Amino acid sequence: MAPTISRRQFLRLSAGTIGVVAAEMAGLGLSTAYARTPGQRIKQGKEVPSVCPYCAVGCGQIVTVADGKIIDIQGNYDSPINVGTLCPKGAATYQLAVNPHRWTKAKYRAPFSDHWEDIDLEEAMDKIAERFKKTRDENFIEKATIGDAEKTVNQVLAIASLGGATIDDEWNYIHQKLMRAAGLVSIENQARI
Question: Across the chain, what does the average pLDDT equal?
Fold first, then answer.
């Protein structure tokens, strides 16, 4: 039975062979070709292909996982989009995922309170949903007079939605659909790709 190799191993082997042949043909010798080959990896673990969460480009990443924890995130050389390179935000994805200063609980400050308190995510989502619905119901405009005619507008001007580059494309898409279905007019996103 023939041994199986992964696509990544095949490409590395092919690139190495082509490099050696090219170096020999150019008269540079094998020592130059061997000097350019990568050494042993420092961080050992299972490599999982992923996509950068920051913008709509969709750069490929390799997430290295050991003992159920992320130990490294780097660009994926097999990705035709970024060919292993990452922008500064993408290169800092590890710090987004593994950060001792990252909040892991929802924060809530009651009206007229002077401090924040930790609350469960379920409770925070319930508060947001209740306040969103209350504001929408109180400020919903079904019809508006435009010129001499009354037209159906079905809109809410009292709520705005602002997205950011750390939200992935799929969430931005469904979030925009939800906000438009609720009648929001003011929908903006910082990621302009």
Answer: 84
